[in-house]
Structure formats: C-alpha cells, structure tokens
Amino acid sequence: TGNLTVIDDRLIRDISINASTFGDNITICAEIKKMNVSHPLIRYTLDNGEFLGLSSVDDGWTNFTCELPVSCKSGEHNLTIEYIDEYGYPSESKTVSFNLMKRPISEKCKNFTTKAGINTTINIQLLDNRNMPVLGNGSCEIFINNKTSVGVAIIEDGRINTTIKTDTLDVGIYNLTIRYTDISGNYYNANI
User: Fold this and answer.
1) Which residues, other chains included, contact 149 with Cβ-Cβ below 8 Å and sequence gap of 6+?
2) Deepest in the core among 60, 154, 176, 185, taking most CB within 10 A?
C-alpha cells in the first residue's frame, strides 16, 4: 500500500484585489510559489493588455499598488498577473476579475433665486464621497425639472459657474438636474 501526495505546483496561487470605486488606487496581493530564482518579477496588465507595472517577489508574496488609468471606466475588469522568470520570460499567468463602481457624488450649492424675465448665474461644487471635487474636468448639461435643457457648462475641478437660460420661466419653484460625464466616460446625474 502506498500514499498519493498531491502538491500545489502553481507558481501563482492566491490573489486578492482591493479596488472598489472608480478613482481609487488598486492594491494587489498575491501568493507566489517559493522557488530558487534570483529576482523573479510579476507583471500586471489590465483588460486588453494595458500595462500597469511590475513588482518583485519577497518570501513568496508580492504586493503592488497603482493608480488605475483614466481609461478604466466603472464596471467589470480583468487583471492579469504574470510570473516573469530570471531570464525575462513569462512562465505562468492568472487572470482575475474585479468590479469598479462609479464614485458617488453630491453637490454643494445654495438655492438660487432670480427675477422673472432674466437669466440666472449658478455656482455649484460637485464633490465625490470623500468630499473631493469630482474626478477630472468635463462638460455638463443642466435641465429644469429633468426635462428642459437650459444650458451647457464646463466643469473645472468639480466647479460649475455658468449662466442658465431662465428668462422664459413662469414664476415658481423648479428643480435643477446636472448630467455629467467624467473623463473616463462615467455618467452622473446630480439633482439639485
């Protein structure tokens, strides 16, 4: 009677990814089989081969943190880590999926009051859930009661300062909605 021993001969073992919201850094930790190799490297690529960087292996583990490129929109992504031997050749790779959510935004503004028959200047600060200006600059469209467009504006460092067309509105209270797409194509709708 003999024994059968099954060993884990994979080079790349457990992988954990910490990235949940667009705009955050991504941190990757992976267990790598200990080998008698003098300077093995791990290469990280995103989705269609976009290079993120390299890290070294230390005592069977590798850790890597980087800022995701702005082309990385919210949604599901694939991350490939690849073991590179001491001669620079890839020998094993593993791909894992992770999901990025849009960064929640809020707006800081006051209520606007205007006289009938004139246009209105608005000043709004769009902030993310860390109380920081929304990522990147871009443009937005402003709607009254989520229906009628009253202007297009540029967003710079999360701030909108523009004049909107209100000269034809009847006396009353109206809701403003800002539709904004950031530099990575993430779409936001802020109701004011």
Assistant:
1) 141, 142, 143
2) 176
Strands (E), the chain: 12-18, 25-32, 41-46, 50-56, 61-67, 75-84, 90-100, 105-108, 120-128, 138-144, 148-155, 159-164, 176-181, 187-191
- The CA distance from 32 to 60, in Å, is 5
Distance between CA atoms of residues 84 and 75, nearest Å: 29
27-32's contacts with Cβ under 8 Å and 24+ in sequence apart are 27/63, 27/64, 27/65, 28/62, 28/63, 28/64, 28/65, 28/79, 28/81, 29/61, 29/62, 29/63, 29/64, 30/61, 30/62, 30/81, 31/60, 31/61, 32/57, 32/60, 32/61, 32/62, 32/83
Does residue 42 register a pLDDT over 70?
yes
Residue 61's pLDDT is 80
pLDDT single digits (tens) 133-192: 665 677 788 888 888 888 888 888 778 888 889 898 889 988 888 887 766 666 666 666
Inform me whether the pLDDT recorded for 124 exceeds 60. Answer: yes
What's the CA gap between 22 and 37, in Å, rounded?
36
- What's the rounded Cα separation, in Å, for the pair 100 and 109? 28
* Of 169, 151, 168, 147, residue with least CA distance to 160: 151
Please give the pLDDT value at position 62: 83
Helix (H, G, I), strand (E, B) or coil at 121: strand
